[in-house]
Amino acid sequence: MIDLRLGLTAMRRWAEQRLQQKENASPADVPALQAAVRAERPGIDAQLRQLHRDGVAVIENYWSADQCAQARTELDQLIQNQPESLRIFSNGADKRMFGAEMAGAQIRAFHQDPFLKSIGEIEGGFSIYNLFTLGARIDATASNRGSGDGWHRDAFGYQFKAILYLSDVSDDNGPFEYMASSHKSWRVGLDTALGRFPIPPDSRIDSAHMGRLIATGAIRPRRYTAKAGTVILANTSGVHGGAPLKAGSRYALTNYYYFPYQIGKSLVEKFAPLVPGVRERLAEFLEAEHLPQ
What we know:
Layout: H1 4-24, H2 30-40, H3 45-54, E1 56-59, H4 65-81, E2 86-89, E3 94-98, H5 105-111, H6 114-124, E4 129-139, E5 160-165, E6 176-178, H7 185-193, H8 207-216, E7 222-224, E8 231-235, E9 240-242, E10 249-258, H9 265-270, H10 278-281, H11 283-286
Antiparallel strand pairs: 1-8, 2-3, 3-4, 4-10, 5-8, 5-10, 6-7, 6-9
């Protein structure tokens, strides 16, 4: 049964979040940013159009095999040397380090990459700040639920992430999954009215429910298998997750971009424990409180 009231409620929530972002975020100089990214990567307009339309786009061979190997080494060393900063999800399979940019020069280069930040600002229209880089290794176990612990949205309205595969990702070792256009207000309203997804601000989606929707063909998420060095650009207000691993492991880095007004003590604490050094960088934000997302 279609419930139009629920659909309209979801669309209204989406509109409220976008209005809050417009009222509190600083506008980006989009024409200047577009000129800069086109100069660095001719042909990037294809990915910009795809990101806007589908909510996700891919750039292959963004990093070399040597760069990926160096970053994997830095991440493994960080996990070994800073066990108190390790967070574990997905029944012990998903090992995460929030603040991996502190691990070494290679991961720090990804964290500071101005090109990736510019893509997020072009799509969102406002200036963003990279809160930190997540370094993650997830292993195939009998009870793993994939990266991100299942299907979810990160936010409502707009949220940008850049995800870099540090190892080859096949159907077997947990590719990123995304439901195209699920970042669009009209799609949020439609899916809520049809009872497919919960009403915002509920952001997590039951895995069994998603499985039934996929099995019946009601939705068709795309799986992003790719070689190491591939970067995925995503508006993670759309429905996404990481497929459960059947074999092997997966290394990845993820830049967590926010509008500066969103960053405050409670947001930072949500990701604790952080790698030492991150709090010092975020000191000015820790004195404030962010607006609810």
